[in-house]
């Protein structure tokens, strides 16, 4: 084998080695660590998609807890707080909204009370906005936001609790006692500050 053939063989072997090393690096990158309790391992057949079951309305119930997903507008965005690169790369924060007046799945009584009760969460276009970013998973944040919405709706149909006169009197006395204690502590702090400013001759 002459010197030229030796050089060609050496160049080819170097190229083959570089290709093999590159493929091994890519295979290592694709095999990232997965915790045994990760969502993919616990639910391997899950498609991670929202599903609304078939709804059978109950005429006697004011609100059964069913919320039609097709009537909601769901917006995903970047979450805040700790979470590393996962927070910066994935849209896990959930923003659920719907127009209260146009919500055909709610009774007029519920809609009227909802407009008054949650007026601070309703924008100028009449959309009730519910947000959630408690977890780092979209589906869990959607479930949390829906549960918040259910709690708001159930609050409108829950009758107000009428307290007896004894409980009201007890609350009034506790408020008076707390106010007196607050004033006493305030005077004590003021007296301590005055004592610090006294100069001894």
Note down, in words, how this protein is organized.
There is one protein chain. The protein has 201 residues and is mainly alpha-helical. It is built from 6 helices and 3 strands; from the N terminus they run ααβαβαβαα. The chain has helices at 3-30, 39-42, 85-89, 108-117, 138-157, 165-196; strands at residues 73-77, 93-99, 127-132. It has a 3-stranded antiparallel β-sheet with strand order 1-2-3, covered by helices on one side.
Distance between the termini: 109 Å
Please give the share of residues in helix: 40-55%
Task: List low-pLDDT spans.
Answer: none
Largest sheet: 3 strands, antiparallel
Strand order of the largest sheet: 1-2-3
Family: Belongs to the prokaryotic/mitochondrial release factor family. Mitochondrion-specific ribosomal protein mL62 subfamily.
EC number: 3.1.1.29
Protein name: Large ribosomal subunit protein mL62
InterPro entries: Mito_Release_Factor_mL62, Pep_chain_release_fac_I
